[in-house]
Amino acid sequence: MTDLITANPNLRGVFASNLIMAEGAGQAMAENKKADTIKMIGFDSDDKTVGLLKDGTIYGLVVQDPYRMGYDGVKTALAASKGDKVEANVDTGANLITKANMDGEKQHALLSRRSSERMTAGAPPALSRACGAPLGRRAIRPARGVG
């Protein structure tokens, strides 16, 4: 990233498409003091990238919602196992988190490494209600011919 910054003095934006790239690009932005002239968006987060977001080095982070991914995956699998029609693709969304919104309840939980907070960030109604029974009381069996 330092070579990219040096070779392109008019560079105004960078997208780092994974966590390792975001860490490296963010570090290079900090070392070269380019946060004021180059806006960088990273994908995914860890303590390092959250720190760079907080201090303004990184403009934003695109963060997935693992709870939503799991919830929608199980809900869709359950519907398919019952023979219900399901969508071919299920968009579980992505969240753009910036310094301006990072302290919001949902954003804070998504950036947090504590799984209990992540699981409640914008959580939809309990999966047990969608299944019609508390989790653990109802077995989800594979479709015939599976397993």
Order of neighbouring strands in the sheet with most strands: 1-2-3-4
What are the secondary-structure elements, in order, as H or E? HEHEHEHEHHH
For this structure, the CATH topology is Rossmann fold
Helix content: 40-55%
Q: Stretches where pLDDT falls below 50 for ≥5 residues?
A: 114-121, 125-147
- Total helical segments: 7
Oligomer: single chain
Tally of individual domains: 1
- What is the CATH architecture term? 3-Layer(aba) Sandwich
Please state roughly what percent of the residues sit in beta strands, choosing from under 5%, 5-15%, 15-25%, 25-35%, 35-45% or over 45%. 5-15%
Taking all Cα atoms into account, the compactness measure Rg is: 20 Å
Bulk shape: elongated
Largest sheet: 4 strands, mixed
- CATH superfamily, called what? Response regulator
**Could you tell me how far the N terminus lies from the C terminus, measured between alpha carbons in angstroms?**
47 Å
* Structural class by sheet pairing and helices: alpha/beta
Number of strands: 4
- CATH class reads Alpha Beta
Mean pLDDT: 82
Topology summary:
Elements: H1 2-7, E1 13-16, H2 19-31, E2 39-43, H3 47-54, E3 60-63, H4 66-81, E4 95-98, H5 105-111, H6 115-120, H7 127-131
Parallel strand pairs: 1-2, 2-3
Antiparallel strand pairs: 3-4
Descriptors for this entry?
Rossmann fold; 4 strands; alpha/beta; 147 residues
Describe the structure.
The protein has 147 residues and is of the alpha/beta class. It has one domain (2-118): 3-Layer(aba) Sandwich (Rossmann fold). It has helices at 2-7, 19-31, 47-54, 66-81, 105-111, 115-120, 127-131, and strands spanning 13-16, 39-43, 60-63, 95-98. It has a four-stranded mixed sheet, with helices on one face. β1 (13-16), α2 (19-31) and β2 (39-43) form a beta-alpha-beta unit. The radius of gyration is 20 Å and the shape is elongated. Residues 114-121 and 125-147 have low confidence and may be disordered.
